[in-house]
Amino acid sequence: MTALAQWQATIFTPEEVALRRSLPAVSCLEQFDFPAAVSQVAEHESWRKELHRPATYVHKWWARRLGTVFRRILLDAVSAPDGTTADTALAGLVVYDPFAGSGTTLIEAGKLGARLVGRDINPVATLTQRQALQAWDFPIVERLFTKVEEACRVDIDALFVTEAGEPVLHYFWVAVASCPVCDVIVELFTNYVFAKHAVRRKSALAHATCPTCHDVVSLTLGVDTSATCGRCDDHFDLIGPVRGRTMTCAAGHRSSVMDALAGQSPQRRMYAKMVKTGDGRRIYRPIDSFDCDLYDHASKLLADAAAGELVVPTGFLEHGTNTVQALNWGYRKWAGFFNDRELYCLGRMGAALRDLPGDGPEREALVAAFGKTLEHHNLFCSFKGEGTGAVRSIFHNHVLRPERCSLEGNPWGADGGSGGYADTLTKLRRAHTYKQAPTDLVADDAKVVCAAGLSSPVGSTIAETWAEFSTDLGSAYVVTGDAAATDLPERSVALIITDPPYVDNVHYSELADFFHAWMRPMRPYSSYPQLDSTRDPHEVQNAAAAGFQKMIANVWRECARVLRDDGLLAFSFHQSRTSGWVALMSSLADAGLVVTATRPVVAEVTTSLAKHAAIDPNRVDVIVVCRKRSSPSSRSPAQARAAAMGALTALTAAGVALGPADIRSAVRAAVLAEGTRVPHVDWGLLASDADAEAERAVAEHLVP
Q1: Contact 392, 381 (CB under 8 A)
Q2: Which uninterrupted H or E stretch holds 268?
Q3: Is 3-138+439-702 a CATH 3.30.450.40 domain?
Q4: Of 411, 513, 626, 633, which sits with the fewest C-beta atoms within 10 Å of its C-beta?
Q5: Which of 495, 490, 468, 494 has the alpha carbon at shortest distance from 479?
Q6: By C-alpha distance, which of 179, 201, 182 is closest to 247?
Q7: Residue 544 burial by Cβ neighbours in a 10 Å radius (0-12, 13-18, 19+)
Q8: Where are the alpha helices (DSSP H) in 319-477?
């Protein structure tokens, strides 16, 4: 128990602690826009987020917001007065996140002295939050890690070597399909160049595989369009037989790749490997008979494994937006995402983790950290290139997209690679150090610096009911469940700070099942759910605005029930469609909540692939601030637009680049928020006003 918790326990019950501090009638969050420096610091954080906030990166989660922004939301929500130290700014307040995700709100609130309640409908998210908050005895972590290493490392390393005993860092594989016309096997290369530097200007040297004998051929990018094999003398174009969704066999028959696969997942061939030589160089070589025999040996080890010797992923893929590509390629079981050697090696590691003694947070952390290894060692991984982390993970895009050319590495990975379990202690130690002595990014003149001493240490036990939370002031209440139906008492929460789902096609449960298939048999903690899938009919995420509105309104009603009368609800929202904003604002009104402010800020990772892929990407989120029903004054659409543009203009003046999508989103939010302030609003008419004002704002912004 922390010193703060011990002091509180001597004089207050949990309910008295929650109620002992009154909140400002009008907070800084409602009175003022964020200073532009907040967005500048947030952007800096986004480039190395896992280093700046390592506690929330022990396990993968997809929706991540920046700690810099949520820290500022929390401080401004209580209008921390001069003289209040930041590390105790929220002392005595219960902070709740109903969509807790990776745990950003929880750890930032914990650093500021709050008591923490987190809920998420997905158990993989809950697992991630638990690692962010729990205290670890690190010598125990180290001892348990050694047990895992002793149980499996030698056997795994022996399956990733050359005939001369050199470590193999990566094997390169290509999917194959039979021509539907003549049955000729086609290797599904788009290009025979398989290895090059990730940054072209740094090196033009590349390596191709000979389509005839698979020798490795060196070439110069930008100069060579063809190559000659030094082993078989074949002269070949670098362009492979696959164009888009079609392939051409050696006989010239052109056909659909999907037709050729005929609903079955493709067979794959090894064609090259990356070897670490005795002097530390990394070189490419063709596959030889020893490599093939070694893989066959791994297949036999898998086939001959005794019951319980391996952890094997369980379950089948279900149809969904994010699983449809994998299903179309014939992947039906989660076990099918791995080749035989991967299944054997990962299965051995999983069994060693499963069988660790005890049921403490240290064992749980080691099991959770295994997720990164799974993410980087499967058939859906590919080669990113030299000069960077070698492996492009299965989740480099928010969809389970099969790779025609896949990459296999040693999952222990002590000799190099990406995502090897050997790095686990380094990653956990970084998170442990951060929780013991948190640091924060702050603006210092024109620079962003890392500052210590602004936050309290974080280290809680985990309560799984409100009753446990009430009797242990050193605990955080973190649980998997529907946020529309909780066991929280009425008016028990001072602040609700969250990042809800959007109207979108990305369903995290469809992706999280990849991890759940392994975590379920490993059982990281005793109450980890044993359901076949993490999918839940009460998920708020929805591609249809009407469905989203219905589900999230239920959550907001529950939030209004548990929120103190003087409490405040604030959340980030990111939405490109007007219909999504209408669904959000109408759901708040239906729940009896009034929007008191909307604040644009850089609040999402700028390196997101989804952002880069968008035609007109959003760089800005809107922080929506709400209170229980009151009678606030309303503004005209034009006044709401002017208020939003004032904040956006300040961001632009500070050097934050904004696009039309950012402006539209911020203005739509401001205009539609007025619908929560007046009864019986015509949402259709207000939506038209919001679109009109948004276009006016874009036009004004584009005027030089």
Answers
A1: yes
A2: strand 267-276
A3: no
A4: 633
A5: 468
A6: 179
A7: exposed
A8: 324-328, 340-354, 361-375, 424-436, 466-471
Which of these, 670, 493, 651, lies nearest to 578 by C-alpha position?
Answer: 670
pLDDT means per 10 residues in the chain (704 residues)? 38 43 88 86 86 93 89 90 73 96 96 96 98 97 98 98 97 98 97 92 93 97 95 96 96 96 96 96 97 98 97 94 94 97 98 96 98 97 89 89 96 88 96 96 88 93 95 95 97 97 85 97 96 94 90 97 96 92 96 95 56 58 90 85 91 86 94 93 96 93 62
Measured CA to CA in angstroms, residue 395 lies from 17, 641, 653 at distances of 42, 38, 36
Q: In degrees rounded to 5, what are phi and psi of residue 277?
A: -80, 170
The single residue listed with the structure tokens 């003694």 is 357
Provide the 10 A C-beta neighbour count for residue 371. Answer: 23
CA–CA distance from 637 to each of 88, 626, 670, 683 (Å)?
39, 19, 8, 13
Coil, helix or strand at residue 451: strand
CB 660 within 8 A of CB 698: yes
- Helix 683-702, helix 660-673: angle, nearest 10: 140
pTM of the full predicted structure? Answer: 0.93
Interior/surface letters 135-149, b for 16+ CB within 10 angstroms, e for the rest: bbebebbeebbebbb
Say if CB 553 and CB 591 are below 8 A apart: yes
Closest CA to 506 of 547, 542, 555, 546: 542
Element (H, E) at 570: strand 563-573
User: Residue 615: CB partners within 8 Å, gap ≥ 6?
Assistant: none
Alpha-carbon distance 593 to 9, whole Å?
33
Here the tokens at position 156 are 């795994």
Q: How many CB atoms lie within 10 A of CB 613?
A: 10
Tokens matching residue 545: 């605005």
Amino acid at 292: C
- What lies within 8 Å, CB to CB, of 249 at 6+ separation is 179, 181, 182, 184, 186, 241, 255
**183 burial type by CB count under 10 A (0-12 exposed, 13-18 middle, 19+ buried):** exposed
Q: DSSP letter string over 172-190?
A: EEEEEEE-TTT--EEE--S
Q: How many helices (H) and strands (E) does the chain have?
A: 23, 25
Q: How many CB atoms lie within 10 A of CB 535?
A: 18
Between CA 289 and CA 627 the distance in angstroms is 69
What's 627's DSSP letter?
E
Q: Do 582 and 575 form a contact (C-beta atoms < 8 A)? A: no
Look at residue 83 and give its three-state secondary structure.
coil
Q: Which helix (H) or strand (E) holds 323?
A: none
* SS3 at position 304: helix
DSSP secondary structure, 404-473, as one string: SEEEEE-SS-TTS-SS-GGGHHHHHHHHHHHHHS-EEEEEETTEEEEEESSS----BEEESSHHHHHH-T
Do the beta carbons of residue 82 and residue 119 sit within 8 Å? no
Q: Report which residue type is found at 393.
A: S
DSSP helix/strand/coil, 638? helix
**Which residues fall within 8 angstroms of residue 345, CB to CB, at 6 or more apart?**
152, 156, 159, 298, 377, 410, 411, 412
CA distance 643 to 635: 10
701, two tokens: 């912004």
What percent of the chain is helix, strand and coil (3-state, nearest 5)?
A: 40, 20, 40
Residues ≥6 apart with Cβ < 8 Å to 309 = 347, 348, 351
Residues 373, 411 contacting (CB under 8 angstroms): yes
Residue 34 DSSP symbol: P
In the chain, domain spans: 3-138+439-702, 142-426
Q: Which two tokens stand for residue 244?
A: 């888009």
